[in-house]
Design goal:
disordered C terminus; 37% helix; two-stranded antiparallel ribbon; 177 residues; single chain; alpha+beta
């Protein structure tokens, strides 16, 4: 416990890992995590017990009485690598971030916005970052003809392990009188 240097987390890792850290039971000091609470939480990764033992034994000293935040973060990275079918050492997990965040039952992954656009279709910028600007300029050029504008939002989440995709699509329709 506490053997490895501090993990340098990406912004998305820091946000997600802090959420996880806040949910794992703390030791009496209120900072470090309990051994049992950490083990119980790691089981929600749905990895096989042998894989979880490997993750644990790489990071936690057999005589440890607590789990530090840094220990947890290294184990979270190791779980993520394992869920992606990759084997990594704790030393590698300190310096290398996995491609995807780890999945834990009951902990929602942060939404990842996906930009949809295809310049080879007949819709031009129908879905894209300039959509609201195009709509405004079209409204101005059409004058009083564009009086009724409606916006619809569709949210789609596709859950497949180890990756969760969340796609949000906004559609603006202008009705002419």
């Amino acid at each position: 416990s506490g053997v490895y240097q501090n993990v340098n987390l990406s912004d998305k890792e820091a946000q997600y890992y802090t959420t996880i850290y806040n949910q794992v039971p703390k030791d009496i000091d209120g900072i470090n995590l309990t051994l049992k609470g950490t083990i119980d939480f790691l089981k929600t990764s749905e990895l096989q017990i042998d894989n979880l033992k490997n993750v644990w034994n790489q990071v936690i000293n057999p005589n440890a009485q607590k789990v530090t935040k840094n220990d947890l973060y290294i184990m979270l990275r190791l779980v993520a690598f394992d869920q992606q079918g990759l084997k990594a050492s704790a030393g590698q997990a300190v310096v290398n971030a996995p491609n995807n965040l780890p999945y834990f039952k009951g902990i929602p992954l942060p939404q990842q916005n996906v930009q949809l656009s295809n310049d080879n279709d007949d819709f031009g910028d129908f879905v894209g970052p300039n959509m609201s600007q195009n709509t405004q300029s079209n409204n101005q050029s059409q004058g009083s003809n564009a009086q009724n504008q409606q916006t619809a939002s569709v949210s789609y989440t596709h859950l497949t392990l180890p990756t969760i995709y969340s796609v949000q699509i906004s559609v603006v329709a202008v009705f002419l009188k």
